[in-house]
């Protein structure tokens, strides 16, 4: 039985499919549901102003994601705890899981080319390997 469920939602179709699944899972287990959206910052920002500008843009973009997510959770009468963070998605999600004692992670799957997957690897695949809890990948 799950008590703390986290869904990672980047605003993509896969992210919202994962959210819908996580809402139903949380209702079934009477678990608390968290949603984390992570904005990737530039690897090598030219200045602190570039970081601030990126963060402001991400906050604005994720406002729509958060509003849609809250609406979906409200339809199912489930409270949703929303968290926004900046950083590398995999590391940020794994750290969040550890810090908040999450016992189940739900992520969406976004297919890339076989070459991309071989060279870069997929976020979902890395989360399955690195998350210290059970993980569901929703297609």
Describe the structure.
50% of the residues lie in helices and 22% in strands. It is built from five helices and five strands. A five-stranded parallel beta sheet has the order 3-2-1-4-5, sandwiched between helices. Strand 1 (4-8), helix 1 (13-29) and strand 2 (32-39) form a beta-alpha-beta unit.
Tally of DSSP helical segments: 5
CATH architecture tag:
3-Layer(aba) Sandwich
Domain count: the total is 1
What is the beta-strand fraction? Answer: 15-25%
Mean pLDDT across the residues is: 85
| Category by helix and strand content | alpha/beta
End-to-end distance, in Å? 23 Å
Helicity level: 40-55%
Write the layout of secondary structure elements.
Elements: E1 4-8, H1 13-29, E2 32-39, H2 48-75, E3 80-86, H3 89-99, E4 104-108, H4 114-119, H5 123-130, E5 134-138
Helix pairs in contact: 3-5
List keywords for this structure.
139 residues, alpha/beta, Rossmann fold
Task: Give a quick precis of the structure.
The chain is α/β, with parallel strands linked by helices. The protein has five helices and five strands.
